[in-house]
């Protein structure tokens, strides 16, 4: 049962991931990307990491995709405005992708056998444990994250408000 | 029930929507003509495309929203263990929210929160 | 004390054992799933009809009118007649529209808001999926609805739809923040995100009474944010009929339009049910201190009635807003969220957390 759900979700996520790349229209790509994220959240649920699954949906499928849609509408990207790729670019892309695949295959072939991790605490993904760990072991990274947010926000404001008089 | 109920609910939503449209398609009249299929505006043909470039303001708000949304996700694990972790975690959260508040103040002062 | 006669786990257990006695295991599961599906679809359809009828009657009485009163008793058949009319309408897909997205958007909007019903505790033991982060689940699933709205507006290839979608997108995401902060403040008090535990934490008093001033502030902010997230008046400038005809669903007709309409009302129910669960105790009966007789009488009212009563009370407040406040401008709307509600709810959250640590609530 679980295995078949896993294979189904994997198929869905890979299929839609391919669709993201293939589709000509950016808005279609965004929709396929949302579906991909959704199926990845399903994977997290299978791993009993419910909090992570929902964070994935909120942050990626919710917030970031809304941002993407706004960007597409801001730049007015359509199927018609999709730049025509020259054969040179396609060739370069094929080489880059191919060498990444080579590296991955080389790395994966080093692994003799994939062993299931033993004695994993299946409750580790639950939120109470996460909260406790976050506030005992990972105090500093937590605070640093807030500074990261601050930087992100300042960067946003500076980027978007660059020249208030020209617009 | 557990995770299975999610699939049921999703199927309900999609099935309900599909069935309702199917029934409507079967019994509703259908007549197509060029006038009818035009974009709904004020009676005269539309001028220019609707897919136009939009204001940067929307993008700005979406970005600031994104930062705060991630912040909310950070607050949830704390909220659950607030009572157990006590005052030390509370002070940490005060610092956390204070730093974000600075960001909000900065955006405010720079006029990023002003429309247009 | 919680009366056992209204414990719905007994009922569901009975159904389960009855089914298992007669069928094989997989078949029992399938039957139960089909039963749940039918229940949900019926519930959603009936709920939307009741809400539309309530909306029209409330609006009518606030304007000293009669409202629908011709079809059926007191006009109750009006909604059924309206639905029949919508079924008989032709669904038009405009020529310029992006066909795939245009037809997909109602599915996204409707299925996300139906999925949000899963963790809502309708009564004692009457909950579909009581997952341990139910509150977060509802916020995350409802936040997906905005994608359906944006896609609907974009794919229509109509200026009104586009403007309406952009406006409602910006509005919904903004108000999600302060709604989220108010939700977190109750999670702080209850110490859990599970809907059933949040309800149980209010057995000795609802949070709005136990948490006094800060929780009342959180409640008010949540109601305002919920109204804005639902794109309802006074925050309805996404579909301001005098300037944008109908906002993002201008091009939709017939059943596709009906789906958006349905989703809007289910969303309203979900958010109000959330408010009722977090602040007003969900299905917990109303108790007063040591008035044992009074409390016992209250216990005899079934828990789903309590839940629905509270939810409809909040729905009534939101409908009341519509006829009380004039529509805001875009800049006022964004100012209200970013310069008032967000800072206030942040500080309020910290106050509630401090209150919880020091034990200053009842």
Describe the structure.
The complex is a heterotrimer of chains A (167), B (116) and C (362). Chain A has helices at 2-22, 26-46, 50-75, 87-110, 127-136, 139-160. Chain A is an all-alpha fold and 167 residues long. Chain A has a single domain, classed as Four Helix Bundle (Hemerythrin (Met), subunit A), CATH 1.20.120.1200. Chain A is globular and about 50 Å long. The model of chain A has no long low-confidence stretch (mean pLDDT 81). Chain B is an all-alpha fold and 116 residues long. Chain B has a domain at 54-116. Chain B has helices spanning 3-27, 56-109. Chain B is flat, with a radius of gyration of 25 Å. The model of chain B has no long low-confidence stretch (mean pLDDT 80). With 362 residues, chain C is an all-alpha fold. Chain C has one domain. Chain A binds chain C through residues 25, 27-28, 31, 34, 50-51, 54-55, 57-58, 61-63, 65-66, 69-70, 73, 126-127, and chain C through 98, 100-101, 104, 131-133, 136-137, 139-141, 143-144, 146-147, 150-151, 154-155, 162, 166, 169, 173, 193.
CATH topology of chain A: Four Helix Bundle (Hemerythrin (Met), subunit A)
Number of strands of chain B: 0
Low-confidence stretches of chain B: none
Shape of chain B: flat
- CATH-wise, what's the superfamily of chain A? NADH-ubiquinone/plastoquinone oxidoreductase chain 6, subunit NuoJ
Average pLDDT level of chain A? 81
């Amino acid at each position: 049962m679980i295995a078949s759900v896993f294979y189904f979700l994997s198929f869905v996520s890979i299929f839609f991931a391919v669709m993201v790349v293939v589709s000509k229209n950016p808005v279609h790509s965004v929709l396929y990307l949302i579906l991909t994220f959704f199926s990845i959240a399903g994977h997290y649920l299978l791993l009993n990491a419910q909090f992570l699954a929902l964070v994935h949906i909120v942050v990626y499928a919710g917030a970031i995709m809304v941002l993407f849609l706004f960007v597409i509408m801001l730049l007015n990207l359509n199927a018609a405005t999709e730049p025509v790729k020259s054969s040179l670019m396609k060739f370069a892309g094929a080489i880059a992708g191919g060498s990444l695949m080579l590296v991955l295959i080389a790395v994966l072939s080093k692994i003799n056998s994939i062993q299931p991790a033993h004695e994993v605490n299946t409750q580790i993904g639950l939120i109470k444990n996460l909260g406790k760990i976050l506030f005992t072991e990972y105090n500093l990274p937590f605070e640093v994250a807030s500074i990261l947010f601050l930087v992100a926000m300042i960067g946003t404001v500076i980027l978007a408000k660059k020249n208030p008089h020209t617009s | 029930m557990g995770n299975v109920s999610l699939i049921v609910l999703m199927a309900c939503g999609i099935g309900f929507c599909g069935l309702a449209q199917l029934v409507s398609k079967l019994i509703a009249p259908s007549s197509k003509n060029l006038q009818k299929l035009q974009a709904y505006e004020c009676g005269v043909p539309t001028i220019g495309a609707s897919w136009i470039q939009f204001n940067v303001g929307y993008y700005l708000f979406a970005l600031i929203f994104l930062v705060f949304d991630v912040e909310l996700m950070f607050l949830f694990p704390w909220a659950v263990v607030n009572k157990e972790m006590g005052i030390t975690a509370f002070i940490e959260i005060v610092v956390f929210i204070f730093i974000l508040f600075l960001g909000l103040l900065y955006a405010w002062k720079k006029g990023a929160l002003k429309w247009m | 004390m919680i009366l056992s006669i209204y414990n719905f786990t007994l009922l569901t257990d009975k159904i389960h054992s009855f089914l298992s006695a007669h069928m094989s295991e997989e078949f029992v599961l399938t039957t139960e799933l089909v039963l749940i599906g039918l229940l949900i679809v019926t519930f959603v359809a009936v709920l939307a009809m009741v809400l539309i009828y309530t909306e029209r009657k409330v609006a009518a009485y606030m304007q000293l009118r009669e409202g629908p009163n011709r079809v059926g008793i007191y006009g109750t058949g009006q909604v059924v007649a309206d639905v029949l009319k919508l079924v008989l309408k032709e669904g038009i897909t405009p020529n310029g529209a992006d066909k795939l997205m245009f037809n997909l958007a109602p599915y996204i909007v409707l299925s996300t808001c139906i999925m949000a019903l899963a963790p809502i505790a309708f009564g004692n033991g009457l909950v579909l999926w009581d997952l341990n982060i139910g509150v977060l689940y509802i916020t995350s699933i409802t936040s997906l609805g905005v994608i359906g709205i944006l896609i609907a507006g974009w794919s229509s290839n109509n200026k009104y739809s586009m403007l309406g979608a952009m406006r409602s997108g910006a509005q919904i995401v903004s108000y999600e923040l302060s709604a989220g902060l108010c939700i977190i403040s109750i999670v702080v008090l209850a110490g859990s995100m599970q809907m059933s535990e949040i309800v149980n934490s209010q057995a000795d008093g609802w949070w709005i009474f136990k948490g006094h001033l800060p929780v009342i502030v959180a409640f008010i902010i949540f109601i305002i944010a919920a109204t804005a997230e639902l794109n309802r008046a006074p925050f309805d400038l996404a579909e301001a009929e005098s300037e944008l005809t109908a906002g993002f669903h201008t091009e939709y007709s017939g059943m596709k339009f009906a789906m958006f309409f349905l989703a809007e009302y289910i969303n309203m129910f979900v958010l109000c049910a959330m408010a009722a669960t977090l602040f007003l105790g969900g299905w917990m009966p109303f108790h007063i201190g040591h008035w044992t007789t009074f409390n016992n009488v209250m216990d005899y009212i079934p828990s789903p009635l309590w839940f629905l009563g509270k939810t409809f009370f909040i729905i009534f407040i939101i409908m009341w807003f519509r006829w009380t406040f004039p529509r805001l401008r875009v800049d006022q709307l964004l100012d209200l969220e970013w310069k008032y509600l967000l800072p206030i709810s942040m500080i309020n959250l910290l106050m509630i957390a401090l209150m919880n640590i020091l034990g200053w609530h009842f």
